[in-house]
Amino acid sequence: MPFDLEQTTHMFQKLDDGGLQKVVVKDPSNKKQIALIQAHLKEESEKFRKGDFSDPAKIHGEDMPGLAQLKAGAAKVDIRYTALPDGAQIRYTAKDPKLVAALHQWFAAQLSDHGHHASGH
To answer: Is residue 14 part of a domain?
Structure first.
């Protein structure tokens, strides 16, 4: 990731219809980290819409829970990027309960891997 994990917090919030992924800075005056977060999440959201989850797979492993289902069903997941004053977020929405479950599994794996740099809220 291009931004500093020690200066940021990842949030993976499971929702009934998908989930919300946020990355925010710990210090809101850190414009450099905010710009890095926004550029990275924007690029990732564009890749995810195309079914390209290669970056998370490189970090967390190809066998990451939920990843295969998300690659296969990417066209059925609405993925929306939003810049925030202190970072950025990606909102994932799916109507298929299997894709919602895959998103939740994927979020749980990321929460586990990111350890103290991540939160479920």
So the answer is: yes
Q: How many domains does the chain divide into?
A: 1
What is the extent of the structural domain holding 35? 5-111
How far are the Cα atoms of 60, 98, 118 from residue 10, in angstroms, in the given order? Answer: 15, 24, 4
Give the global pTM: 0.89
- Contacts of residue 47, defined as CB under 8 A and 6 or more positions apart, other chains included, come to 53, 54, 55
Q: Chain centroid to CA 2: how far?
A: 14
94 part of a folded domain: yes
**pLDDT tens for residues 55-85?**
876 766 677 889 899 999 999 999 999 999 9
38 φ, ψ (degrees, to nearest 5): -60, -45
Total number of residues shown for the chain: 121
